[in-house]
Amino acid sequence: MASNPPGPCCLMGFKHEGTPKGEMKKIGNISTYFTDRSDAKNTDKAIIYLSDIFGISHNGKLLADKFAEQGYFTVYPDLLHGDHVASPEDYHSGKVDMVDWTSRHGPETVDPIIQSTIDYLRNTVCIQKIAAVGYCFGGKYVARFLMDGKIDSGYTAHPSFITEEELAAIQKPLSIVAAEDDTIFPREKRIESESILVKTKQRFQINLISGVQHGFAVRADLSAPGSRFAMEAAFVQAVMWFHYTL
Hints:
This is Dienelactone hydrolase domain-containing protein. GO terms for molecular function: hydrolase activity. Residues 40-243 form the Dienelactone hydrolase domain. This protein is α/β, with parallel strands linked by helices and 246 residues long. It has a single domain, classed as Rossmann fold (3-Layer(aba) Sandwich). It contains nine helices and eight strands. Strand 7, helix 7 (187-200) and strand 8 form a beta-alpha-beta unit.
């Protein structure tokens, strides 16, 4: 694998303050958070937000809103059909069996949700350029949908579950941000991923931020200056990548 499977560190982090600005709608039978552009920029471009194991979360909605504030129509589908991990406490108390949970949420169930979202954006909203952001669990699906060019650009923070074959097959640009302390995307996996990406001949970027752990780009402790900087830097990386590649 180019990154390891999800683990306990996926459940760490902090809930952020703020009120989401978007609204829940449906794409087919999939619950989806919609948050629209705040101005007329990038009217032909959209971002699909691919979540971590918490599914449609408060923090995720706030991040989706931030992408919309940068001029991108942003949609955030429920990749997990409501079967998300509700809280870190559920895992640590034994209420969630991650092996069993993971077996229910593989490409056979997740891919069709993303494909339906892409079809909606292209055929109903008439979006010309589609990017995807993927956090942890969602990072795998950024790579999968770059394989045959179904999306036009991708970004992932602290990805999990990406296979070497998926990464080697990307056909569009990919940006990655990694944490220094991450058992899921450790140093050897970063180096391996870099070697694979060079061979794809696609534009790519890998940034490493010290002093943070897996999950920092979504669930950082914003009261800690270093963690706040890292989360903000990860977001700016994504936005600048899409400004460049879309």
